[in-house]
Amino acid sequence: MGTTDPSNSLKVLLFPWLAYGHISPHLQLAKKLTERGFSTYLCSTPINLGFIKKKITQKYSSSIHLVELHLQETPELPAFYHTTNGLPPHLMSTLRNALVKAKPDFSNILKTLKPDLVIYDVTQTWTAALTAAQNIPAVKFSSSSVAMLVYLCHLLVKPGIEFPFPAIYLSEFEQKRAKSDLQDAKADADESDPQVQRPTRYCDSIVLAKTSKEIDKKYIDYLYDILKMKVVPVGTLFQEPVVGHYDDNNNELEFDNNILEFELIRWLGTKSERSSVFVSFGSEYFLTKEEMEEIAYGLELSNVNFIWVVRFPTGEKIRPEEALPEGFLERVKDKGKIVEGWAPQEKILGHPSIGGFVCHCGWNSVVESIEFGVPIIAMPMHLDQPLNARFVVEMGVGVEVMRDENGKLERGVIAKVIKEVVVEKMGENVRGSMRAVSEKIKFKEQEEFDEVVKLLKQLCEEK
Questions:
Q1: What is the Cβ-side half-sphere exposure of residue 8, based on CA atoms within 13 angstroms?
Q2: Separation CA 384–CA 382 (nearest Å)
Q3: Least confident of 187-201, 209-223, 299-313
Q4: Cα 199 to the chain's mean position, in Å?
Q5: Measured between alpha carbons, how far is 357 from 343 in angstroms, rounded to an integer?
Q6: C-alpha–C-alpha distance, residues 372 and 381, integer Å
Q7: What would the pLDDT profile of 405-427 be if each residue is shown by its tens digit?
Q8: What share of the chain is helix, strand, coil (3-state, %, to 5)?
């Protein structure tokens, strides 16, 4: 298992958006498909393929093939910015436009490779026209929650009509930001965007989604009601840890970081069961000074043990002690660990001393927390995260740190929620819900992926 003969297997080309949070689920899906006899090809920019290469173990080396897509280099967008990782926010639209301009190159890849099927990121809807031109079946893949996806689709196709599931909502300041994001997405999309219009091919009406019907069924059904989109769950695609450690810029970490991992796990071993929180906001969001201060004071006020991963933009020479409140490191030296850049997230979340995960609610982090049964202390920052946070609360697997009317975090609220989850009785209820959700997903995982395989083979045979 894990190796296939390319001459006898169906060829699937996967085409993710240029963000690690999208690339990792595509890679995990590729791994699962190779275990079912498919030969998989993953297409991205060279800088992203450097990241992917490190994640492919020997088991998959002969069945997952990497395909380079070269974007045009400009002074504003050199090759090292052909990824969202470390990309200055003002260049995001520039990167999206650069990818759209690479359509002819992607079309040539299709002509050369002649895949039996293309799986493309739900954000790259223009891919469908290119595959249709070459009579190649293609399906969208969403690495976000379906609750989030259907909420945004509802805004697009039913503007002004209230979303029928009140648990999923955006606050006033979040709505303004979402409106801006949707306008950007519309500007970058094709006029024939099948995300907004009715599909013309059967395969265009299918969305593979990183979820399970056990948690997303009503949202899956509603997406079909409003767009006739058939959502096919692929499971949570939990990412197995890879031997060797790499930072956010694909550099292999030095031996010092292996020592760091050992020290962090040893430190957790000195703490009592479920007494600590892990704090991380993903690899592509950088906290403002104000956010960092409020979170620091919130952790301190909670009096709970913590490991906090802090990150700063590439090239900025900032030390944690400069960004954190004066005297903070000294005051929390027995209770907390500040780690810059990288930490062994899977090993930390899997440690019995961890009683909560303070996170931004990127969908990959939510899924990982569910996998380890760790309650979520939701602190969404942007993009899909606020909607994911509401879904986390609806499932009963976490509690959200609510912001004030201006969208600001407040240290007292942060401390209160952390204590509720880690110290008080509410935490027991959340842990119980988390266990139930995790068990339901795992029970259906094999059966749901059988359906995925059956569908993809059917699409390949019918082209």
A1: 5
A2: 6
A3: 187-201
A4: 26
A5: 13
A6: 23
A7: 889 999 999 999 999 999 998 88
A8: 50, 15, 40
* DSSP 8-state symbol, 342: -
Nearest CA-CA partner of 309 in 256, 348, 270, 267: 348
**Phi/psi of residue 193, each to 5°?**
-50, 110
Question: What is the rounded CA–CA span in Å between residue 200 and residue 205?
Answer: 8
DSSP string, 365-433: HHHHHHHHTPPEEE---STTHHHHHHHHHHHTSEEE----TTS---HHHHHHHHHHHHTSTHHHHHHHH
Contacts of 222 (CB under 8 A, 6+ apart): 150, 154, 164, 165
- Other CB atoms within 10 A of residue 10 CB: 20
251: which residues sit within 8 A by CB, 6+ positions away? none
Listed by start position, the domains of the chain span 11-239+444-462, 255-440
> Alpha helices of 35-126 — where are they, by DSSP H?
46-55, 92-101, 103-113
Q: What does the pLDDT read at residue 15?
A: 99
Q: What is the DSSP string of 249-276?
A: TSPBPPHHHHHHHHHHHHHHHTSPTT-E
Query: What is d(CA 302, CA 279) in angstroms, rounded to the nearest whole number?
Result: 13
Contact at 8 Å (CB) between 193 and 125?
Answer: yes
Residue 319 pLDDT: 84
Contacts 24+ apart (CB under 8 A), 252-259: 252/54, 253/342, 257/342
Alpha carbon separation from 7 to 39, 115, 135, 298 (Å, rounded):
9, 12, 21, 58
List strands edge to edge, sheet with 206-209. Answer: 64-68, 39-44, 11-15, 117-121, 138-142, 206-209, 230-233
Are 219 and 153 a contacting pair, CB within 8 Å?
no
Amino acid identity of residue 346, one-letter, is E
Active-site residue list: 22, 121
Here the tokens at position 200 are 């013309």
CATH 1.10.510.10 fits 11-239+444-462, yes or no: no
Would you say domain 255-440 falls under CATH 3.40.50.2000?
yes
For tokens 């991992």, name the residue.
261
With beta carbons less than 8 A apart as the criterion, state whether 216 and 222 touch: no
The label of the residue with tokens 């767009």 reads 227
Task: Say yes or no: do domains 11-239+444-462 and 255-440 share a fold.
Answer: yes
Looking at residue 72, what DSSP letter applies? P
Query: pTM to 2 decimals?
Result: 0.88
pLDDT digit string, tens, across residues 43-74: 999 999 998 888 888 889 889 999 999 999 99
